[in-house]
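The passage that follows is intended for readers who have already worked through the single-chain material. We present the inputs for a multi-component assembly, then the predicted structure in tokenized form, and finally a short commentary. You are encouraged to pause after the input and sketch how you expect the pieces to fit together before reading on.
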Amino acid sequence: MEYTILLLILPLLSFLLLGLLGSYMKPKVAGIIGTLSLVGIAVVSYLTAYNYFAAGRNAEGVFPTLMPHNWKWLPFGEGLSIDLGVMLDPISVMMLVVISTVSLMVHIYSLGYTKGERGFQRYYAFLSLFTMSMLGLVVATNIFQMYIFWELVGVSSYLLIGFYYTKPAAIAASKKAFIVTRFADLGFLIGILIYGFYTGTFSFEPNTAHLISAGAMIPLALSLMFVGGAGKSAMFPLHIWLPDAMEGPTPVSALIHAATMVVAGVFLVARMFPLFIDYAPEVLPWIAYIGAFTALYAAAVACVQSDIKRVLAFSTISQIGFMMVALGVSTSMDPHNGGLGYMASMFHLFTHAMFKALLFLGAGSIIHAVHSNEMSAMGGLRRYMPVTHITFLIACLAIAGIWPLSGFFSKDEILAACFDFSPLMGWTMTAIAGMTAFYMFRLYYCIFWGKENKELHKAHTPKESPLTMTLPLMILAVITCVAGFIPFGEFVSSNGTAYHIHIDATTATISLVVAMCSIALATLVYARSKQPIAEALATRFSGLHTAAYNRFYIDKAWLFVTKQIIFRCISTPIAWFDKHIIDGFFNMSARCTAYLAEKIKWMQNSHIQQYCIWFLAGTVVLTIILLIL
Amino acid sequence: MRQELGVIVVFLIMFVCDLLLPENRRKLLHPIACILLTVQMLITIVPTDVTLFGGMYHSTPIASALKTILSFGTLLAFLQCTDWLNREDSKHKIGEFYTLSLSTLIGMYFMVSADHFLLFFLGLELATVPMACLVAFDKYKEHSGEAAAKFILYALFSSGIFLYGVSLLYGATGSLYFADVAPKLHGCELQILAMVFVFAGLAFKLSLVPFHLWTADTYQGAPTVVGGMLSAVSKGAAAFALMTVLVKVFGNMIALSSTMLSIIIVVTITIGNLFAIRQRNMKRFMAFSSISQAGYILLAMLGNPAQGTASLVYYIVVYVVANMAVFGIINAIEQKSDRVLRDDYKGLYATNPKLALVMTLALFSLAGIPPFAGFFSKFMVFAAAFNEGHYLVVFLALINTVISLYYYLLVVKAMYIDSSENPIPAFKSNWYMRISLLLSLAGILTFGLVSCLYQTFSSLMVN
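Having made your guess, compare it with the prediction:
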């Protein structure tokens, strides 16, 4: 499997080529180079997945963890070192497939979407950088390599959100995303350092004796790592950057802010899952509660947003909440007995990546046609854009959890795991799943049915997007239709043994009924061109509506906390301290240095006799010191 | 021994070519020298372990890796010297430059792999005396002669001290073989005196404070290429030789030698930095910068032999590429416009952006800013000293890196931020210089991130 190193080299080369020489190329050539490198990566990924799973299980009945490459990069004396390499295990191989598939689709799609855009070459260079970082993150052989690529992913996300750098909103959003996630990454880094200090290694499988002797430090380290994961995966209350990140180009939102980067936090928890189960079982339920609250909160906000990308952003937050919940409700490594959530979470990650990328790319196609993100500019688009319409509908059905689309299967596993944990959790998540179906169909009806904005459409008739854009939509739609039938448990499960997915009849019925009811409700409220019920509800519960529309004022709360409390009470005194004490100290030492430098210049008076005296004096003084000691 | 023979063959070929080539064909010597040295470097790149001359000569794998580095540094200097040698006043002695530099290289080779004090001394002198001729190469320039006079007088003085120390060792132990001397040392007064004297003799070559006073005058007066070789190649060889002597001969007196090193390190780095801040002439500036860098190299000697030697060699290779890049640029600018002051560099970015960029990266590497190679090499020597418990020295050295950052950034500031009414005009370097700078740049950018280099040195120490 040595060829897996190509997964990192190919995108790096393409990044360097496009980044350094892009301005000498025609935009089209740059796009084709970027896309071709992605084709290569996708081929290598699929080959890796095929070879890995075809090689079969080892004597213990699990797929072995392979490390085709592992270089010691920065040794810190004995034992502890930062390594770089490639590690293959079921979840990293699964992620390789997800990332390369979605990234390839996005590369092809962007050929049409960003055609004629300024900085087309730069765009593809950044996409390559992102792909390399994300692949490096999932194949990391140790937590520190993961952190390095984690930050690289953050940087490329920052660069891509701010792609339209002449737009103030995009710049503000890119900064917000970077700062919020960096803030969370501080926790991650501290967690890593604690982990490294107590276990003496950065690898994922430390010495058991060290883990036991570390005691309560391991749960602390893991919790801090989760904070980093929560930042990247937009868990409440660190979710505030994700909706704003929608200022970036829509294909970027599909790739980074829906399918791959934002699930890095889930991947992190899954990667550390064995340690969580054995050494920090008390932390897991908290992850579940945070995930559940985030899912509920984001679903509520998504119900009233009017910008289609915002709706999708909140829906992403909500779905990641589902994945976190699934990990959090796991209580053991055995998938048959309490460990189902792990498999469910990874399965949902996989299916969600596909249908959410489809939704975002569909949204991009719509925005491309009507030149607006607002629902008010849409309505009745089904007549103009048939391919986008059908594929979008498929994705909506999948996320709502309708049989036989992929979302049904993964969501069903999550709900089953939740019901195993506690009935309350099960019912809550079922209700949130119902809300999901409702807001997704609200979105669907408002775009494709509902009240058409005839005035706007007359001035500029929407038309179906070119083939470069619709082809990825169709491919993803096909994947969304069939992905549910992949025997996912055969490949990925908490302890590595084969798990045969079986649909729990009760859970499946409940969730199907709830989803159908929600869709029916959405149809009743939003399908027609006049929407009296929606307006009546909005007026009736105007307080709630406004609060939800303003995302329950969480952004405002953060602004209050940062501006009024942190800036005023903490930053100002620190700034004073920095200016007067720290700077004063350095100014003083600089002045002393300059003074000393002036005072000793007589030593260097260019007389060779004097030089020799100094030489001799130095020798004698040194000897005397050594003799005395 | 293949490496020494290789250089001797290159030397002889150059000598014969110099004799046979007619006056107007002398310029052919440049490509011949560069190609031959590259070939010598490449065919002997695999490290070997050889003992010869009844044990007087012992080339360990790590020493042969170091020799490759020294050849590489000399190659960079060869690539940088063409413009200077092609000038009217020196083009009749192109061949001399090459033969002299190659003989110092042979001297250094013997010095780093000697296992006997006589051979060691022969190597030391062979490395020093031709170097003095090189310093005096521009003999019709006043400064060059003065620099050479200072260099050779100082070298003689330090050789005297060194030999005094060696004779004391012979008196104390009755042998000059490293292996025979070492077990008989236990740290009595006479032996302390011997150690300090031997150390002082080598400290001259490394220009450690207070044995450094020749450095600035010599660098300033010497041709810039020679300054580069003095600061990078010669220093690298001396550092390795010093470490070898301290480990192989004075291994029993480790407590004393590390006290001595600690004192010298702190004094060297601090004084070097203090003087560097004041310099306006770039060559004097680089002289003091190289003094303080020598202090950092010494930190590696505080580590245990395995880790210390690996990090020392790693530091040397990183230092050689960065320092040769800086000297190359100073040289290029000096040849084109005859200007060497820091103030002359104002606005360089506007007129010669590529040169300014390479200079910046090289200075960043010297200052130890990640992700350039210098950060990792500093990290390794700090780690080597830290692991042996020399916390205070490491801390003081760390503080000094901040000061060094200041004066390196002064140059960067001059190039990028300050404007000048009379900037250095835009010019194109020849291909030799470009290749040299590209090689250095590649080293600065990759030696840190590609960790296999340090691992290789480390594994050479284990075997």
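Commentary: Chain A touches chain B at residues 71-78, 84, 590, 593-594, 596-598, 600-601, 603-604, 606, 608, 610-612, 614-619, 622-623, 625-627, 629 (CB under 8 Å). Residues 554-599 of chain A form the longest helix (46 residues). How closely did your sketch match?
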